[in-house]
C-alpha cells in the first residue's frame, strides 16, 4: 500500500469514483515547504483552472490536504489522469508519513 497526498481534484469523491470505482480512505495532513500556484490546463472543451504545489524558501509554508492509502495499481491510474504539468515525487508530510504528491513539472 502506498500513500498519496492530495490537495486538489483527487479529494473529490466523484473523481475518485471515476478513477478507482471506490472512495479512498485517508487522513488530514500537511505538505510543508510548499505553496499552491494557479495553473491553467487545456482540456477537451477549453482551458480549466487548477492549482499545483510548488516549493518555497520557507520550510513552514503548509499545504493542507489528505494522505490517502492507495494501491500501486491505483497510483498508476493517477499517473495517467494527471496532466504533464505535474510530476509525482515522494515527500515526507508533517505527520512524518512518506507519501507521493504531484507537484509542478518544471
Automatic annotation (TrEMBL):
Residues 4-104 form the Gamma-glutamylcyclotransferase AIG2-like domain. CDD domains: GGCT_like (cd06661). SUPFAM superfamilies: Gamma-glutamyl cyclotransferase-like. InterPro entries: AIG2-like_dom (IPR009288), GGCT-like (IPR013024), GGCT-like_sf (IPR036568). It holds the Pfam family GGACT. This is Gamma-glutamylcyclotransferase AIG2-like domain-containing protein.
Amino acid at each position: 500500500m502506498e500513500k498519496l497526498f492530495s490537495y486538489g481534484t483527487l479529494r473529490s469523491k466523484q473523481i475518485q469514483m471515476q478513477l478507482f470505482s471506490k472512495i479512498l480512505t485517508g487522513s488530514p495532513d500537511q505538505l510543508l515547504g510548499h505553496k499552491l500556484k494557479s495553473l491553467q490546463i487545456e482540456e477537451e472543451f477549453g482551458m480549466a483552472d487548477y492549482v499545483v504545489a510548488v516549493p518555497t524558501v520557507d520550510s513552514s509554508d503548509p499545504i493542507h490536504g489528505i494522505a490517502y492509502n492507495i494501491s500501486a495499481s491505483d497510483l498508476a491510474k493517477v499517473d495517467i489522469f494527471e496532466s504533464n504539468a505535474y510530476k509525482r515525487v515522494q515527500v515526507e508530510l508533517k505527520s512524518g508519513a512518506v507519501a507521493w504528491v504531484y507537484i509542478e513539472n518544471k
